[in-house]
Amino acid sequence: MKLGLSSFTFGWAVGVPGHVPADPLDEHGLLDACQELGAPLLQIGDNLPLRAFDDARLGRLADRAAREGVRIEVGGRGLTLERVAQYSTIARRLGSNLLRMVIDEGAYQPDSRTVAGILRESIPLLDGLVLGLENHDRFKAKVLRSIVQSAGSDRIGVCLDTANSLGAGEGIEAVASLLAPLTVNLHIKDFAIERVPHLMGFQVGGRPAGGGMLDVPGILRQVAAAGGRCATAVLELWTPPEASLAATLEKERDWAKRSFAYLRPLFEREFGGAA
């Protein structure tokens, strides 16, 4: 399993709604981060939508990544047959063999039967590619597993995010027990759950990798042992904001460095290297 960065490692720097920096991080800033941290893999997700790039911009990205030895993975949002076709073309343009997809986009929230049908129709579009469907809040792991298995193709799998299913009321242990055998890509996102000061509830927040509740070595071993389909893992961060955007961006960069410093030796021990 190979380790990399994501555009969601630097979510604040790329820009979140209502909080976009004056000079947001683009694909070349992300490649700069890969060079700085020694990451040979970059997954560009829907917070920097590649479908908005023209061919010349995609070509510059592909050329620079190839020169610098950084492998690109493609991520999109809004699972429709047309969107899969669009992103499959982009993936081939960038040399990505993975297409990670989030199902929902805004008010578009198809039911499980619709999703399964789209996946089956998408299979002919995925020659040479693998589509990883991300667990993303709404569907419980059992339902997502059924959706992916119903496609009946090794071109369809799961992008397993270690924190997202908290939004569906499920912890990573239960989710991984069901989805690890189908996992083709892993999002390492550490977190903590803390009781709020008034004691009436809990708050979920991100942490640097290795600094929260996630058993990172355990989930890596579990996914690796579950069938060997998972070829790559990327760091994602839920960095809590500071009082100013500048302070938030500084914290995010620090967390990225701390997280990668923790993960690199771990991957070297478990898999013989991050590259």
Brief description of this entry?
It is built from 9 helices and 10 strands. With 275 residues, the protein is an alpha/beta fold.
Write out key terms for the chains shown.
single chain, 275 residues, TIM Barrel, 9 helices, 10 strands
Describe the structure.
With 275 residues, the chain is α/β, with parallel strands linked by helices. It has one domain: Alpha-Beta Barrel (TIM Barrel), CATH 3.20.20.150. It is 40% helix and 19% strand. It is built from nine helices and ten strands. The strands form two sheets. It has an eight-stranded parallel beta barrel with strand order 1-2-3-4-5-6-7-10, surrounded by six helices. The chain has a two-stranded antiparallel sheet with strand order 8-9. Strand 3 (71-77), helix 4 and strand 4 form a beta-alpha-beta unit. Helix 5 packs parallel to helix 6 (141-151) and helix 6 packs parallel to helix 7 (172-179). The chain starts with a strand and ends with a helix. The relative contact order is 0.15. The mean pLDDT is 95.
Cα-to-Cα separation, first versus last residue: 9 Å
The CATH superfamily is Divalent-metal-dependent TIM barrel enzymes
Structural class: alpha/beta
Largest sheet: 8 strands, parallel, barrel
Strand count: 10
Q: Helix content range of the residues, please?
A: 40-55%
CATH topology: TIM Barrel
Quick one: CATH class?
Answer: Alpha Beta
Unreliable spans are none
Sheet-strand content, in percent, reads 15-25%
Please report the number of helical segments: 9
Could you state the oligomeric state of the chains shown? single chain
**Could you spell the SSE succession in H and E letters?**
EHHEHEHEHEHEHEEEHEH
Mean pLDDT comes to 95
Lateral arrangement of strands in the main beta sheet = 1-2-3-4-5-6-7-10
> What coarse outline follows from CA principal-axis ratios?
globular
